[in-house]
Predict the 3D structure of the following.
Amino acid sequence: MLNLEYTGSLSDHDALREAFVAGGLRTEAAARKARLFAKVAGDGFSGDCAFFVPGRIEVLGKHTDYAGGCSMVAAAEQGFCLVARPREDGRVEVIDAGRGESIDFEIGPTLVPRGGHWSNYPMTVARRIARNFPEARRGATIRFASDLPAAAGMSSSTAMIVGVFLALAEANQLAPPADCPTLFTDFTKLAGYLGTVENGQSFGSLVGDVGVGTFGGSEDHTAILCCRANHISRYAYCPVQFEGATALPEGLLFAIATSGVAAEKTAAAREQYNRASRLASALARLWQAETGRDEPHLAAVLASSPDAGRRLQRLVAEADDVEFSASALTARLEHFVVENEELIPACDAALRQGDLHRFGQLVDRSQQAAERLLGNQIPETSFLAASAREHHALAASAFGAGFGGSVWALVETAGADTLLDRWADAYRRQFPQHASASSFFLSGAGPAVLRVC
């Protein structure tokens, strides 16, 4: 997290825009953030802290993080502009200044989050804080505005979790636990912890809780808290570990298409997402049961010996799993091996070598593997990825949980607007029912969370 050390007013558009440019945003994106903060600070609202919390672009790493794998990620230039003011009581008020909606609740360990509504995310954060840090009983008034599309696979829910946590941690001056004294200074540690806030698991001595109902990992939290501006970062997970960052080649940026099909982690979509996670867990449990070994996740299993992959394939073929068929387990294993063991290292090498043709071919394979093996694609996202390539994008892939959501395309800055318009026209002709809900925009590889004041 970069501290902008900005001392001006949140309503001073020009000065704030320049501060954001210095923080790593392109000029157009910086101007949008300045306008959003002006909206948040409207009616004279001010606070003790303000943050820009970005969404994330998953370049590669489809459903790998919770299985201990790797991913290549960048922070988006779209996100939440959030201002927080501590309160003297225990009430937490969260106000969406863009949509004119608000929620209000008491921070506490028995708080019951409201599933199926955006309030689930701040309420889950407040409940977990109250349980893990019993001294934290001070509330806050939090106002935000966002240009990050909701339920589009760009981690809007995680960005909200991160932003609300930062605001409440500041209001309560949280102290780290004894077994993780760097929790609030090492952002890979904080990303790991916030991943467990979302999925309900424990983090060291910080005991788990209900979570938001999804069995995900900490990729999104890591990208939001740790990515470097103008770079694609590579992280491994369980625990979070930085593996490297490669500069985005000059003259390139991301074109993003949101399909208009919500990728909400609720109801049926949540069950589809969780099934992919449970398949990965089932593979690790099968290995543990048959070998007596204790590798905790799929990545550790495959790394345990040179022939572990072949051994696991044989175990799957002979398995009698009560929940999943051998074919489903085989497809999940093959996808993880292709994505994590083959494509991510090869894509990272191609990007570092500046071989964008090779990079595009490898990303095409990732998209095809998601369609054929992971099963998290829909006709809309498959079309968008293929169409971007037909319109001469250097690479393109769907990203995020899937079952809806968005597609990124790597494009040349010169001509990006034209490509974006043609891409949008092609999609809306093919899927006119999503014309009004879809959106197309550009993003650089932005900075991680920026503390504005």
Remarks:
- DSSP finds 13 helices and 13 strands in the chain.
- The longest strand covers residues 70-86.
- The first helix runs from residue 13 to 22.
- Residues 62 and 235 are 13 Å apart (CA to CA).
